[in-house]
């Protein structure tokens, strides 16, 4: 099989180490002035709304040039006025308590009025903090317009949580104008399941490993589920999901997810299985700014669960 995926277009800002070249904003709160006992955050600061939160800024008693945030309650949501999207890349957290300087929290991320990530539903979503300042990053890399932290311990951890150096990254407004780079990858996997429900909708799930020696030695796992119907001998996609987890020698693992576009025409075998063709995907749950397409040249749906092995090219924009 020459190619499992011929063209899979993703944003380098999410998938590849070259994303480090994109401008990142670190909010350090140093320009807010000096306060010994804590002052509520301004209604809008660094293009984020803090008005309804309980975040207060304080000046470090041991370092008068350093401000950090602490809570006066459990309201922690911070949102972008107007709903403009951005990437949230975590912050530095620690405990202000001398004894028993341990606690935990969970990230909650929002977009367009909906929760796109809830750390309480993620087996790896619990974030432990101690007296040592540590950067914590949510297990979600998609665009958001608001974030918060929550506590499951009845509220007894919020009163000693401290936060500083919030990291955000802007989303390019014209990704189509960015230069593209293509790197070869290999894919090795197999079909993990296939099914037909009571309404005649078919689904097939595939999972395998990817790697590329030409793009920073990227390794990862690609999993996708295709849902489709057979109409007059033709397959019509009706949805699905994909997930791509990547890592490299110098980069921690992270996961990107998205949806499979509906309405795509897919070739069908005489047995009603997918025979190949182009399967358009949408990036990050329907964001039209980053289109993805995947070309398959062998049957995708088979009761024999065939192995899928071959190569594909990953094309991504270089974000300055």
Write the SSE topology.
Layout: E1 3-9, H1 12-15, E2 24-27, E3 39-40, E4 44-45, E5 48-49, E6 55-60, E7 63-71, E8 78-79, E9 86-88, E10 91-95, E11 103-111, E12 114-118, E13 126-129, E14 134-136, E15 146-150, E16 161-164, E17 166-170, E18 180-196, E19 202-212, E20 218-231, E21 234-248, E22 251-260, E23 265-266, E24 277-283, E25 287-296, E26 307-317
Parallel strand pairs: 1-26
Antiparallel strand pairs: 2-17, 3-6, 4-5, 6-7, 7-16, 8-15, 9-17, 10-14, 10-16, 11-12, 11-13, 11-15, 18-19, 18-26, 19-20, 20-21, 21-22, 21-23, 22-24, 24-25
Description:
By secondary structure, the protein is mainly β. It folds into two domains: 3-18 and 177-317; 23-170, Protein of unknown function DUF4465 (Jelly Rolls). It contains one helix and 26 strands. It has one helix at residues 12-15, and strands at 3-9, 24-27, 39-40, 44-45, 48-49, 55-60, 63-71, 78-79, 86-88, 91-95, 103-111, 114-118, 126-129, 134-136, 146-150, 161-164, 166-170, 180-196, 202-212, 218-231, 234-248, 251-260, 265-266, 277-283, 287-296, 307-317. Strands 1, 18, 19, 20, 21, 22, 23, 24, 25 and 26 form a ten-stranded mixed sheet that branches. A six-stranded antiparallel sheet has the order 3-6-7-16-10-14, with no helix packed on it. The longest helix has 4 residues, at 12-15. The two termini are 36 Å apart. Residues 1-21 and 283-291 have low confidence and may be disordered.
